[in-house]
Amino acid sequence: MHTVWKGAISFGLVHVPVKMFSATEDKDISLKMIHRDCGSNISYIRKCPTCDVDVDWDAIVKGYEYEKGRYVLFEKDELESLSSDATKTITILDFVALEEIDPIYFQKTYYLSPDQAGGNAYNLLMEAMRQSGRIGIAKVSIRSKSSLAAIRIIDDCLAMETIFYPDEIRSVDQVPGLPETVNVNEKELMMARMLIEQLSTPFEPAKYTDDYRERLMDLIQHKIAGEDVRVAPEQQRTNVLDLMAALQASLEAVKLPPNAPGGLDTNAGGAAAAAGAGGTAPAAGGAAPGSSAAAEGASEVVAKVKAPRARKTKKDTVS
Q1: What is the reported pLDDT for 126?
Q2: Residue 232: its pLDDT value, please?
């Protein structure tokens, strides 16, 4: 696991040095945005619409829009001075019962392990929390952002759950369309309760899978097998000394013998390469060096190298 933070848990006058690791990982399949016409990956640039220029990172500051189109600007050191991240401390403020916290408050989970010979203090805090049946409510700064957190035990490991501040939780009063009164039919209610009972089971997370991700990965594999693939074109080389390498790559791509009908003529390719390098090209097809026939042969080779390779769009029917 990659360490995302180092610091200490503080409760009272006790400090427990810890390292923090992310307890979860995103398994979503990343799909890039591709230009349909050529298969190239779409790139994004930082551009100022007013000056019509690309902007480097060192010319960018952060700002808060207090009115439409009007901003107050902040330098990096100004924002860093507001953060308590320099303390590198998870400060436990209170100990509470876990069941008192509604799950809506929880954000992200991190594992905490002892650091710098802090094993004894780590075990002491964990055992004291286990016997008390309480979890810690703490404040911590991660990446310059102050967060509220819950410290609890997961399988003999201290874990930290970042949680929302109360003013970040929206009230259900803001939800439109909720019925003011609840009127239910008793028979329907009884049947609904019976259905709930029939579906009730111990929670076994391993039996739940991401069906969409599995279907998407299956579709990806079928597309790869069926060669329904868009290949981004290579950047055209301007160095004529690489012409032979480009010719060789082209021959391998089309998988034709060098002098077969429809293939590329390596003799003409050698002529073009030699001519481009400033040397004297050997005769192509019996033509004398510098003749129009040799020039035409070289031109044909260059044209074939620069021509974009046809994309394969073969599709297999998947039953």
Answers
A1: 95
A2: 61
Token pair recorded at residue 34: 């591709």
Q: What pTM does this model have?
A: 0.62
Same domain, residue pair 14 and 158? yes
pLDDT digits (tens, 9 = 90+) for 183-218: 888 888 888 888 888 889 999 999 988 888 888 888
Pairing of strands 62-67, 135-142: unpaired
> For the chain, give me the number of helices (H) and strands (E)?
7, 11
* Residue 174: per-residue pLDDT: 92
Full domain range(s) for residue 96: 3-25+82-167
The enclosing domain of 92 has a CATH number of 2.40.290.10
- What is the distance between the alpha carbons of residues 298 and 21, in angstroms, rounded to a whole number? 60
Has residue 89 been placed in a domain?
Answer: yes
Low-confidence spans in the chain with pLDDT less than 70: 83-87, 227-319
The last residue of one of the domains, among 167, 184, 200, is 167
Burial of 135 (0-12, 13-18, 19+ CB in 10 A): buried
Question: What pLDDT, in 10s, does the model give residues 260-271?
Answer: 444 444 444 443
- In terms of Cα–Cα distance, which of 279, 281, 278, 277 is closest to 297? 281
Can you tell me the distance from the alpha carbon of 73 to that of 70, in angstroms, rounded to the nearest whole number? 10
CA distance 135 to 78: 35
Residue among 86, 84, 131, 92 at smallest CA distance from 112: 92
Domain boundary among 135, 167, 199: 167
